Amino acid sequence: MQISIQTLGTRGDVQPYLALGLGLARAGHDVVLAAPARFEAFVMGHGLAFAPLPDDLLDLMDAPEGRAAMAGRVNPLAMTRLVRRIRPMMRGLFEAQWAAAGGAEAILYHPKAVASTAIAERLRIPALLGFPLPGMTPTRAFPSPMLPFADLGPLNALSHRLFLRYGDRLFAKPLARFREEVLGLSGPAGPGAVPVARLYGVSPVVVPRPGDWDADSHLTGYWFLDEAPGWRPDPALAAFLEAGPALVYVGFGSIPSLDPAATTALVIEALARAGLRGVLATGWGGLAQADAAHVHMLDAAPHAGLFPLMAAVVHHGGAGTTAAGLRAGRPSLILPFFGDQPFWGRQVARLGAGPAPIPQAGLTVENLARALGEVARDPGMARRAGAIGVRVRAEDGVGRAVALIERYAAR
């Protein structure tokens, strides 16, 4: 079977789908992964066919207004202006998605790949939603993970529906024009434009399956990509690791900081007050290079190799980084910026695998130092995180997702 996987966003939006694509390829399927053009070498370096999607949306995220939005520092008016800048870019994205789907017998897509269901409707092939966040199936169990609320009680299910409706309306006009002018589809979307299943690359250990989900929504377990399985620390990092105890990883992945030097200084001071040593990853600009005896700076390192060497991990709460910390069996302190990151912070705290999250907007040296001491030295927290890691490592999320894709595509 020829399968088109379509995703959009930063590396955290690409890596799980690459893992899933490789699993499908091992099962004998022909897979093409469509993702932003800047990830071509990353995808093809793993031996998977690649179709480029435009980079202009990521370029906008690199611009000052985009960096402010990703840092959670924009007001509603500024966000409206940002969306207005994005809308003219959508036609190029839709056409690239259409080109990437040539010959496909099924499409698996990230919700940001907005045209996927329309393309599946036109080709008369099944579309399956795949997402590392359980946020596209309404439930009474918790509010939409994209909203900053821990619990809305009887309004939980409504919050999901409202968020999904907002997402549908955001780019409805450019999508309607594309459906008519390129795909030859007129009128409202037909039954073929509805995904036949929703697959969530999330462990049920971390998010128990809600009892009111429909039968076609599934928690498969995480979609891990094990990069550089033979990775070893370079000599400088190895020497730092051996120089003393109580190592804490701090990194914010693809999330930039409006003032990375100030953020880095705050983290370094908080580590010092907590009496801890840290390994700091600069990532996409969340932290800056700095020099202090109790920290080691690096650009990046494979989480699967580095995290087990730490006493605890501190990060922004991206779905992939959260999963990596739990898989390693290490307590996590989450410092969320926006979006689904507070949701993951609350889930980790609910499991007892980390303290309560501290939003970036309220981060201080004092509260970070207190939380660092707790996450790195609480034996109960370490024990609970270790037990979760054992269960997560026993799962085969990719294998489970592949079996479901095959079942739904055949049906």
Feature tags:
single chain; 411 residues; alpha/beta; Rossmann fold; seven-stranded parallel beta sheet; five-stranded parallel beta sheet; 17 helices; globular; hexosyltransferase activity
Q: Can you tell me about this structure?
A:
Helix 1 (11-26) crosses helix 17 (397-410) and helix 11 (260-274) crosses helix 15 (365-377). The model has no long low-confidence stretch (mean pLDDT 92). The radius of gyration is 21 Å and the shape is globular. It has helices at residues 11-26, 40-44, 56-62, 64-70, 76-86, 90-100, 116-123, 156-170, 172-181, 235-242, 260-274, 303-306, 319-327, 341-350, 365-377, 379-393, 397-410; strands at 2-6, 30-36, 49-53, 106-109, 127-131, 197-200, 217-219, 247-251, 277-281, 295-298, 312-315, 332-334. The chain is an alpha/beta fold and 411 residues long. The protein is built from 17 helices and 12 strands. Strand 1 (2-6), helix 1 (11-26) and strand 2 form a beta-alpha-beta unit. The strands form 2 sheets. Strands 3-2-1-4-5-6-7 form a 7-stranded parallel sheet, with helices on both faces. A 5-stranded parallel sheet has the order 10-9-8-11-12, with helices on both faces. Residues 5-135 form the Glycosyltransferase family 28 N-terminal domain. This is Glycosyltransferase family 1 protein. GO terms for molecular function: hexosyltransferase activity; UDP-glycosyltransferase activity.
